[in-house]
Amino acid sequence: MEAPRVRVYRVEGLDCADCARKVEKALGGVPGVVRAEVSFQSGKAYLHLAVPEAVKEAEARVAALGYRLRPEGAASRGLSGPWPWALASGGALLLALVLSRALPAWGSWPYAAAALLGVLPLAHKALRGVRQNPFSMQALVSLSTLGALFIGAHAEAAVVVFLFLVGEVLEAYSVAQARKALFALSELLPRRAYRLGEAGVEEVPLEALRVGDRVRVPPGERVPADGVVLAGEALVEEGAFTGEPLPQAKGPGERVLGGSLVAEGSLDLRVERLPQEGFLAEMERLAEEALLRKGQAERLVDAFSRRYTPAVLLLAAGVAFLLPLFQGDFLGHLYKALALLLIACPCALVVSVPAAIAAGVARGARAGVLFKSGAALERLAGVRHLALDKTGTLTLGRPRLVRVVPLGVSEAEALALAKAVAQGSAHPLARAVREAEGPHPLPAEGHRTEPGQGAFARVGGKAIGLLRPEALPLPPEVQAQARALEGEGYSLSLLVREGEALALLAFRDAPRPEAREALAALRALGLRLHLLTGDRKEAALGLGGALGLAEGEVRAGLSPVDKLRAVEALAAQGGVAMVGDGVNDAPALARATVGLAVLEGTEAALRAADVGLLSLSALPRAFRLSRKTLAVVRQNLLLAVGLKGVFLLTTLWGITGLWPAVLADNGALVLVTLNSLRLLLARV
Hints:
With 684 residues, the protein is of the alpha+beta class. The chain is 48% helix and 21% strand. The protein is built from 22 helices and 26 strands. The strands form five sheets. Strands 14-26-25-24-15-22-23 form a seven-stranded mixed sheet, with helices on both faces. It has a six-stranded antiparallel sheet with strand order 6-5-7-13-8-11, with no helix packed on it. The protein starts with a strand and ends in a 7-residue tail after the last helix. The model has no long low-confidence stretch (mean pLDDT 80).
């Protein structure tokens, strides 16, 4: 059976989280749509289609609710929000004011006409979506306006409608700007490229590039697509999406990312991925997918909001129909009830969490931290322990030959023989031998590898091997030298000829340049650090000491199962984040409260992790951003709930009326949106 096809559409007119739920419910009922996901933050709908023709029915269903489905990338139709109706309502309100002064005999009827004109689009939209949500904000405002007209508050009804329409325009504008800010990574790509061909350099639009094309990037220009440097050297700024403040030196053979800026020098590149499929596009896709996965705070707020609106509506009904039985003044209590209808809308409350999470995810994408879900962003703020893998995470994962200890031959001869054997092996230590500076390898033949033993070849008619030191009985003095080197944290290989030891080769996996600074920053954040590695204790302690880790923070010789058990124990002691990069780290990454994987690592680790890191230096930024995002979530909830609570009480006491309730609702929504957008500029 063919898997459902996923198509992405932009939903025009989607200006609140309640609207997103309404559209998602309607799309989910379309025949041929297996699943529909609508993200208010990105303004997009993700349709899993079993039948491609279902798109037409989906468009019709959405149009019936007052929204439009547009293919992703299609041009937007004009300004967002009901601005024509807001202008018409404002004009009618101004005309009513003039007429009420010039023709007092007309009384307040011009205001009633202005109110009816303004409420018309709201009532129409409320009626179209009544089956999905009978308590939408449009329905509540329409009821309040008609009720105000019924009790004779014509002028206030007109003001309420006008303020609400203006609020909807401001809300739509702020949401549109937020979405533009959240997913502006693709704007880093230039609009042109300088392609190298037989005729020389030609300027072409970005869309004309193909995989394999050679392009030139002069100083001051942005790289048009992900590629590999063929010629030239340059300083490249990648801070816009890695968070690294300093430009990085790039030369032949190194990869560069589309959108990075060539600050000094010039590069010739071979295009590896099309611009629309490159690293920036992948980051935007991951950010959008993260917003579809709700975190705990968002789920709790959704559950609360579904109970909040009916509760306030019941309160409004009691104020309108029960209190007059005991206190009289039916019209006065009905007025209070109408104001409570406006306060019953949970829009600001519903938006408060996803707006902050969306901004946090987007800020992370620009700081080299790719959150796969909003839940991961939330959970990371609460962990107290950080477990780190060694090889490939704290180290470069590329051993280097740092010492040659000759045992009867010269150092140059030993290295030449070792390079001859290493030519036929793919082992990381053999590669380190080949890359070591020194004499060229001697001619060799008959290369072979024996698992668990080493690599062998014939040089000058004699058998030469690179072995584990334990594979051959060694004289006591050589054993002592080997133990001393291992005690210093080196990995060893033994060079032998016809069974005779010729030299000890000492290797070390260098720590990442940013590792010590990153660990110091993590410790300053109050995290307890744990190095978990399968490497030998001596090597682990040597690296830990170089990076400022205490002996009690290092656990060596661990199998993948041991790592998993250690992470399980830490998870029970306040939560643990695990950082790894290899296949053996995947179980621990999946079990941790939050799993983080360095993007240079294996695909298995990346799949198991909740967060991707472009570099180790992005790790402290991930924690700082998570904590700042959670602080903004709390501020938003306080703003939304606080304003609602204040106006709920002042309305019941008769201090505030209809139009302040509208200002409270729209004002709170704009405030939580703007407060969330602060995260995009936050220093992490």
